[in-house]
Design a protein that fits this description.
Elements lengths: L1 H18 L2 E14 L5 E14 L5 E12 L2 E8 L2 E22 L4 E18 L6 E17 L4 E10 L2 E11 L1
C-alpha cells in the first residue's frame, strides 16, 4: 500500500509539473492616457511584475499582474469658469493597476491577450481658481487587449490598449521573464 501511495504521489507530481510551467516576469514601458471629451492627455512610465501560469498543455496561459506608473509630463490648457478663463495644469502623480491577463499564443513568437484591470490614478490640478485646484484620486475597472512579440524565451515587447470608463490608454512595454 505504501509503495502505491508513493508511486501515485510521484506520478501526480510529474503530471502537475508537465501541466503547469510558471514564469515570473518584470515589465517596464510608457503609456499615453486620454480622457474622452476633454483636452486632457498624459504620458506615464510604468514598471510591473507578473506571474504567468500555463493552462494545461495548451496555447493558453493566465497572468496576474501589478503595474505602478508615474507621470512624465504636465498637461496645461485653458479652463472657462464663471470667474473667467484660467490656465489649468494637470499632473499624474501616480497610478497603479491590477490585472488578470488571459494569453493565447498565436505562433511561437506572437501572442494575443485580453485583461480585465482595476486601476487607481491620483492627479493634481493647479489653477488660479482655488475652487478647481487640488488633488483627486479615481479608481475604476476597465478592460484591455493587446499583443506581444517574443524575441526569445526570456524577452518580449507588448502593445496594449485599455479603456477605463471615459479614459483610454495605449502602452508600449518590454517584458523580461525569469
Amino acid at each position: 500500500m505504501k509503495k502505491k501511495l508513493i508511486f501515485m504521489g510521484i506520478a501526480l507530481s510529474a503530471m502537475a509539473s508537465s501541466v503547469m510551467a510558471d514564469t515570473l516576469s518584470v515589465t517596464a514601458g510608457v503609456s499615453h492616457l486620454s480622457v474622452d471629451d476633454t483636452p486632457f492627455t498624459a504620458n506615464t512610465a510604468y514598471a510591473g511584475v507578473g506571474y504567468e501560469i500555463d493552462v494545461l498543455d495548451t496555447k493558453f496561459s493566465l497572468m496576474p499582474e501589478f503595474r505602478y506608473a508615474i507621470g512624465l509630463d504636465d498637461e496645461t490648457f485653458l479652463t472657462q469658469t464663471p470667474s473667467g478663463v484660467f490656465e489649468t495644469k494637470i499632473e499624474v502623480e501616480r497610478a497603479y493597476m491590477f490585472s488578470l491577463r488571459g494569453n493565447y499564443q498565436i505562433t511561437q513568437n506572437v501572442g494575443l491577450f485580453v485583461q480585465p484591470t482595476y486601476s487607481a490614478i491620483k492627479v493634481e490640478v493647479t489653477t488660479k481658481d482655488a475652487m478647481l485646484s487640488g488633488k483627486s484620486e479615481n479608481s475604476e475597472w476597465g478592460a484591455g487587449v493587446g499583443f506581444d512579440y517574443d524575441f526569445d524565451a526570456k524577452s518580449s515587447v507588448e502593445l496594449v490598449y485599455e479603456q477605463f470608463g471615459d479614459s483610454d490608454s495605449v502602452s508600449l512595454g518590454y517584458r523580461f521573464k525569469f
